[in-house]
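Subject: sequence -> structure tokens, single chain

Hey, anyone have a minute? Need the predicted structure for the following. Not urgent.
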Amino acid sequence: MTDPAHPVTGDLALTEDDASRVVDLQAEGASLLELARSGDRGRAVRSVIRQPGQNAILLAFPAGGGLPGHDAPGPASLLCLSGSVVLAAGEDEWRLPAGSAHVIPPVRHEVRAEVDSVCLLTVSLPLPADPPGTVS
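Reply:
Had a minute. Here:
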């Protein structure tokens, strides 16, 4: 279940039809960045891959935009595809220029875009438990 108040999971939009498509991250990112620039939230978010145990979420931030402080929904990593962002948790900050990645700390954190930026957030989720009587 997604949390509508969470700055990432509350924005996801992925249909069953999307499960078998090849994702052009550059084209999707450019489109999403235009959407982010035209909005007032400082970001645009779209899930590009969803499968049991994993979500890959494209994030687009206009310069100065980002994600406000929030808790991690599970083990996650952030890959900056274009631009440059700062991942901050408490007193720690990591600058991620295009082509760099970092683990999302399992504490309250935020992301700030230094310039127009597109990132890929990958979140690992627990797999559903096997139904009773299922042999693994």
